[in-house]
């Protein structure tokens, strides 16, 4: 009897351990490089809120903003190693994994964010979400930030004003070529280092949507911001393919639904967030916001447009055409 009681106690405690193990929530680490107040920052927080509300005890989401866990040089590696589970790098930061996404960096390809959205929702755009699965990266959605503006310590009204200036670029060959086309000097730099780079004069200028210029305080260290809308800075929300496919089916299908809902919200709010930040930058009065005449804008377009030809082979002429078609 003594023996069997002990066996029973042992069996019970094993059951308790197994039960406890099952009840442990899946921890999803979401790392990013921008502020909580930006479209991506807001999206990450909403994802956390909805996931924890709708999957109580099953999922816990930890959001690490502002490069606090990994900067943009490391977050993709961390995703592949399984150290983080969701990231949303700008579309400019995928060139090591697929050349196709370079299409989004081509200057003056999209007339506005609505055109970007139409292309992302098209068959070609949706297919790109799956273009890196052989590398264990699954695209879950596109998130908008917005159109990029050119900032500098010199007033940039015409392409010749950029000549010889040093511009910070994301890790993108297309963006390097864009500045070379202006006879300017591109410098690749991690996002977390840009403020200091501008402040110390390592670079003289940069390109970013209003929400990043505002939340990173770039407007405090740039005398001028030209409203060029010359390109787009959007994101792909990505996860580690094996991790996502390994989630319990009920958890995964609920998270898929939440991603759809969060994406709609992010993309609906991004433009307003950017316009609000543009307003706050104007009001701060530390930098002058320059508007271009249609003729000046046409000059920038003409100066940057030769970049397309350099990447047409890698991206594919058909994909560029499909993106252009989204302008109508
Ligand atoms: C940048 O490096 O400028 C951006 O990609 C940062 C971001 O995530 O918006």
Automatic annotation (TrEMBL):
Pfam families associated with the record: DctP
InterPro entries named among the record's database cross-references: DctP_fam, TRAP_DctP, TRAP_DctP_sf
Cellular component terms (Gene Ontology): outer membrane-bounded periplasmic space
Gene3D superfamilies assigned: Bacterial extracellular solute-binding protein, family 7
Signal sequence coordinates: 1-23
This protein's UniProt keywords: Signal, Transport
Keyword Transport (UniProt): yes
UniProt record, GO biological process: C4-dicarboxylate transport; transmembrane transport
PANTHER family to which the protein is assigned, alphabetical: C4-DICARBOXYLATE-BINDING PROTEIN DCTB (PTHR33376:SF7), PTHR33376
Similarity remark: Belongs to the bacterial solute-binding protein 7 family.
Protein name in UniProt: C4-dicarboxylate-binding protein DctP
Species of provenance: Atopomonas hussainii
């Amino acid at each position: 009897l003594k023996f069997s009681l002990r066996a029973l106690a042992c069996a019970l405690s094993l059951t308790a351990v197994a039960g406890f193990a099952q009840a442990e929530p899946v921890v999803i680490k979401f790392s990013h490089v921008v502020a909580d107040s930006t479209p991506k920052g807001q999206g990450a927080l909403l994802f956390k809120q909805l996931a924890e509300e709708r999957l109580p005890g099953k999922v816990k989401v930890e959001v690490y903003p502002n490069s606090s866990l990994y900067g943009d040089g490391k977050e993709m590696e961390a995703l592949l190693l399984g150290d983080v589970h969701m990231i949303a790098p700008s579309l400019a930061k995928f060139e090591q994994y697929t050349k196709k996404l370079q299409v989004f960096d081509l200057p003056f390809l999209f007339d506005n964010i609505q055109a970007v959205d139409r292309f992302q929702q098209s068959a070609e755009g949706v297919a790109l979400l799956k273009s890196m699965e052989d590398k264990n990266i699954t695209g879950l959605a596109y998130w908008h930030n917005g159109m990029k503006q050119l900032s500098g310590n010199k007033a940039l009204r015409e392409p010749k004003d950029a000549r010889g200036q040093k511009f910070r670029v994301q890790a993108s060959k297309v963006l390097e070529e864009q500045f070379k086309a202006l006879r300017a000097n591109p410098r690749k730099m991690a996002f977390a280092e840009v403020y200091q780079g501008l402040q110390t004069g390592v670079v003289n200028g940069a390109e970013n949507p209003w929400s990043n210029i505002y939340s990173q305080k770039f407007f405090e260290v740039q005398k001028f911001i030209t409203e060029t809308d010359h390109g787009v800075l959007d994101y792909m929300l990505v996860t580690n393919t094996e991790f996502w496919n390994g989630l319990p089916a009920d958890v995964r299908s609920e998270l898929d639904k939440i991603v759809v809902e969060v994406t709609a919200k992010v993309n609906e709010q991004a433009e307003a967030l950017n316009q609000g930040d543009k307003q706050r930058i104007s009001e701060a009065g530390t930098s002058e916001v320059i508007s271009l005449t249609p003729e000046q804008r046409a000059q920038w377009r003409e100066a940057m447009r030769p970049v397309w030809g350099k990447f047409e082979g890698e991206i594919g002429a058909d994909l560029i055409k499909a993106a252009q078609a989204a302008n109508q």
